[in-house]
Amino acid sequence: MWSECEVEGAAGNFTADARQFPLVGLRWTGQLEDAAMLEGFAAWVEEFTEYLGVAQQPIVVVVDMRLAQRPTGVFRRGLIKLRIRHRAVLDRWVIHDVVVTNNAPVRTMLQTLTWVMPWVPITAVGDFDEGLGLARDLLRERGVLDPALGSATLFGESSARP
Question: Of 2, 8, 50, 74, which one has the fewest beta carbons inside 10 Å?
Answer without folding.
Answer: 50
